[in-house]
Prior knowledge:
The structure is a single chain. This protein is 6% helix and 45% strand. It is mainly β. Among the domains are: 40-96, Phosphatidylinositol 3-kinase Catalytic Subunit, Chain A, domain 1 (Ubiquitin-like (UB roll)); 100-162, Resuscitation-promoting factor rpfb fold. β1 (40-47) and β2 form a beta hairpin. It is elongated, with a radius of gyration of 41 Å. The model is unreliable at 1-21 (pLDDT under 50).
Amino acid sequence: MNNRRPQPASILTITTAALLVLTTLVLSACLPLSPKPTESFSVTLQADGKQTTIQASEGDTVQNVLDRNGVTLNTLDRVNPAGYTVLSPNAIIIVVRVREEFEIEETTIPFDRQIVRNESLPEKQERIIQLGVNGVQQVTYRQIYEDGQPLARTVFKSELIKEPRAEIVMVGVQRPFTPIPIPGRLVYLAGGNAWSMDSNTGVRTPLVTSGDLDGYVFSLSPERDWLLFTRKSTAAPDEEINTLWMVNITEEGAEPVDLRVSNIVHFVDWVPNQLLTIAYSTVEPRATAPGWQANNDLWIVSYAASGMYIKRTQLIEGSSGGTYGWWGTSFAWSPEGDRLAYARPDGAGLVDLDTGELTSLVDILPYQTGGDWAWVSGLAWAPSGSSLYLVTHQAKPGLENAEASPLFDLSAAILDGPLLKLVEQSGMFAYPVTSPALEDGGFQVAYLQAIFPELSETGRYRLAVIDRDGSNPQVLFPAEDMNGLEPQSVIWSPETFSDGNYRLAALYDGNLYLIDPATREYQQITGDGLIQHIDW
């Protein structure tokens, strides 16, 4: 038997041949296919006033075609369809050339003419007390052109280059009221302007005639030579409510000085015995009622006559301010400036002038107004600074909600003693004001007495006075057959008149009246019905 095994060389030969065939197949699979011819088609391009038929290939976008044909788009140009759009046969590409130009125009704002009636001039006689000046408004317009044709013209920016200044003409009216001598200088706010009566009610001088005083602040300095006031802001109300200014009223033609303070609603006053020094509290403007959120802070700032800061200190940091504290806190300096009282909806007390800490003297039952405002008591110091006069809120027996009680009393807080109730049911807007010290060392307290005490929130009042301990009450003005007073703080004359008596200045139907507490006699001083605030 002859069995022969296959030789290894033969096996190797067969295997090698198989590998060669396999390798050939793999390499053949990896070779690139012959490219398929790309189909082209026509599209229409409309640009720069021309219409052109151009070729595009399958898969081309609008931007590809524009780039190949040298069409460059500027920043504002538009193309339709959009640059990323893949084209199809017979597509239309439209390029719209867009440019903008800015034009500046200045327009004149005519000045207003304000008529101020005044009894100090003969009837129908006119006197220009401020020349009118036109304003200038600069408006920048943005003009859009598409393919050279004007399309839209809109206001890009408007800027007030120069504010107009109103012409103010004083017109004499019948003078039914005899001018009388007065001690000191009495200032008043009428029609958004500040005026003064100096030594005589018939001598009236304009102090600030911008027409934009808002009445939140209107206060004479202790030396009666500077007037502190607020002006309406030109910004939106939810950005800035008002701005604070002062003016030297002893210098003829003095310009108001901007104190660079804004958003003052509840409190600004001069600090006694400190030259050109004020204390103020601020609010944050809000778009919702009442238009602000109180900071319940307190700043003390000393100024130079130019309005430059000399010293600025924050005595009280901002806080929630207790119950209904969003409304705000009020303050009152003692006559010597050595004490500072505060009042807020839930109480009253003293401020530590070194640390700013509040020490409560009286806890007050907050009043639930049911509206977008809060009630805060007025404050008045005794001339000696030993006691504080204020209004307290009392619960009404049988009323389930004590905070809704309509009962308010005039009280005195003795700094080293008890709280004394002086006048029951005076009304919530009693606004006590103390007189200068009398010859016997005593003094009187003037206040408003509600005609209908349980309706004192909306009702009217009569002016009354009491002695410092609440004794000897007298109702002075107006008479019973006349309408009552609107809520206000009346003003004591700083000195006695020639008869040795002090007077009270009050507003009635927009006119100034002087009342003598000793005789209960009163005199009407003005008749134009325009006065809003006074200080003396």
